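Letters spell out the chain; the tokens describe the backbone. To illustrate:

===
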Amino acid sequence: MASLEFRILGPLEALSGGRPTALGAPKQRALLAVLLAERGRVVSRERLIDALWGEQPPASAVQSLQVYVHGLRRALGPDRVETTGAGYRVVARDGELDLDRFDQAVERARGAIQGGRAEEAAVELQEALGLWRGPALADLPHEARAAAGGARLEELRLVALELRNDAELACGRHQALVPELDSLVAEHPYRERILEQRALALYRSGRQKEALEACRDARRTLADELGLEPTAALRDLERAILQQDPALEAPAPPGGPKGSLPIPPTPLVGRHLEVAAVTALFREEGARLVTLTGPGGTGKTRLALAVAEALAPELRDGSVFVGLASISAPELVLPTIAAALGMQEGDRSLETAVAETLRPQRLLIVLDNFEQLLSAAPAVADLLAAAPELLVLATSRAPLRLAAERDYPVPPFAVPDDELELDALLQTDAVRLFAARARAVDAEFRLDDDAARAVARICGRLDGLPLAIELAAARANLLAPAEMLERLGREPQLLGQGPRDAPDRQRTLGATIRWSYELLSEPERVAFGRLGVFSGGCTISSADEVCEIGIEELGALVDNSLLRRRRPQDGGEARFTMLETVRHYAAERLEEADASELRRRHADWLTDLAESAEAEIQQGADAAAWLDRIQPEHDNVRAALAWALAEAPEVALRLASALRIFWEIRGHFSEGGRWLDEALEAGDGAPPAILAKALAVSGTIAFRRGDLDLSRERFEGALELWRGLDDATGIAKALSDLGTVAAAVDDLELAGELFAESARRFRELDEPSRLAIVLANVGHISHQQGDYAHSIEVTEEAVAIQQRLGHKHSEAISLYNLGSSYLSAGELDRAQRRLVECVAVTFELGFKEVMAYALAAIVRMSLQDGEPERAGYLAGVGDRLLSDAGVSLQPREQELFDEAKATAETELGDRYLAVHDAGVSAPLEDALVEAKVLARAGVKAGAGQSAT
């Protein structure tokens, strides 16, 4: 059983080897949450259905539940979700669930508080709370959160926060606690313990009047809004404050003299996970030098201060903050550290003096903004060698590249999902930060449902960068969130000046990006600007082909946090991307140079890629592999098309037309149609061959979108142009296309005539691959007309051609249609043989959608043969294939499939669930062999891996 880590204290996650595991669709995630909430207990099928769908589940709820169970087994391992009777249980070992670690840490903290060990308790509770990454199960719908005990988990967090506050107060850290208590009271105005803690912290901070007002406000709130009398504890606290009872005095802070850290002007929002992770590096991994890296605006300095505060109980000699932003000479680093330590030069060298001062100390030095001083990094290594208990926490846009260094990239905030429930949305870090900073400029600022979703989209537009979010929120006294979102799209300069006491480089987003840009060498600046031509990132090869940029420049930009490297998937190339705010700055640098040549090269590169993919797929190459190459370039395609419409309409026509298979298979028909409509309007004077192809592709898209009038108009336009060019292949194809429109409007006679003429022309042209497609269309028409004999005759010819040419993708579809025709004609043996052939071909290709169609037909045949158990088993396989492919059967086919499953369940009774679940869960090859659809000896060696 593979080791996993389950996280429910925040968005639901499962980690394997420290990396997230894809958990699938929302209801599949909700299923895991409910099972984890029970931690090893069996949960009945009825309760799970109720949790996922409520009081009115769909008729297919049982089958869908089984598919979700299968999905979890694929994601987590087959032994992680067990079927027990009519229910399921998740297998989670001790310590794998973050809630378990949280509970254990809280219990240890309780014991420490009772034993008078407040510092120990504070550390335990800070680590426990660091496991929370937002509201428990924050990414699940409200009903699923409720079913998984979200409210109970939130109560556990609040209790831990109250314990943490008690520990901090007992450590004498009341002053630092007040801002957070202010926020907690605003979020939980009826939580009496937090009200008491805030009043006590205010009193100990010398703010007696405010402490009394806090007690009285608490009494009024409880009485007026809840009709409750305050507890004796709150009344006693108010009396003790009035009497200035000595018992309220703060305890002396533990430990000896401490170094000083700057006090941030605003409380930290979020970052609990990052604080916990960085402190864990120092504590658990024994790191002595950690560098927080990332682009400007991610909040590295603020995170460093929070980490220093979290480590404070363990630092005998405290922390020292060394700000380096104002110096540019590497030789000034050591003197600046010495000044922060309160040292002056004497008879000894400064290096010796600083080393001897630090040698006996357990001290953390925070070196802030090291990026412009990287050549001074060896001096830091010398200090670590000289002082065995010294810890260094650096912030830099590039790593220091020292042997002892642990690099911790600081990510932007997660972009909020604007589809979340309002309560969950308001608890996301990005939205919380925006709201907190907006209230600082407008005390009346509030977020209703619409405004919160607008703020979520603003945060997404700003890449989740904390600085950018703060700068946007500073405009909240002038613009409502919806207006701000609309204007951000056309006025990036909307993010104006930040606070006057912020460093110059952080007062505008442009300034903080420019700070990084100016640290680059001239060749690196040129490379950065050129990469602004890519809207969706690039690979090393595309950066070289379009921009003539090599790996050295890419590496430098990654090191300086202006470029991010994404790990390659499935053996593909690594991809390099920019935050959108950084890319906008790069695009400005590109426009300052001569951008037109680079934009043309960018569009030409994409056109070559699209046309190569189109040609290879038409010759029988692996369509999925080519489409997988195009998919990451979708944003680049959009940018190239937008440029080409204005500057090179012919290129726009070629690119949009060549992407027909991409628009179709990857579900972008509407978008492809819009691009083609605009390109046809802009490129009216393009060469006729290019226009004809574009009209034909536009007609196909219109047909699939149900606009038959436009489809016919486009196909007729293409036919006219091809006739003018005397393009025999184009003419034959246009006739076939017009035949599909005629069939769609039930003019089967005209459709038959057009298909027959198209087939005759393709025979004369000796184009068998196109002929086979036309013949398959003729067969489909004949089937609709009830002429099964003719349907079988022409479809058999289509299959024979496709088999001879090795066009397995088309053959699979034709085999299914042929089997269906035999089934309708009552020739069950031949239907079975052709459908089994279809399964074999689709298994080899990994063509799951068509395999599911074939299996659905075989399920019906199995019931006719009196084999309900085989039918139920194959129904499970079919449901699993449709789930994997993310598709549904056509309405009539789905209706027949559902009827067959209902019949199988009626005949099998209670056994149906186990039989169907076995089909869902079994490895695909084993399932098909077990059900006697395939013989194992007939399966090609690599087919199982391809299909699964």
Summary: The domain at 272-409 is CATH 3.40.50.300 (Rossmann fold). Confidence is low (pLDDT under 50) at residues 498-507, 937-948.
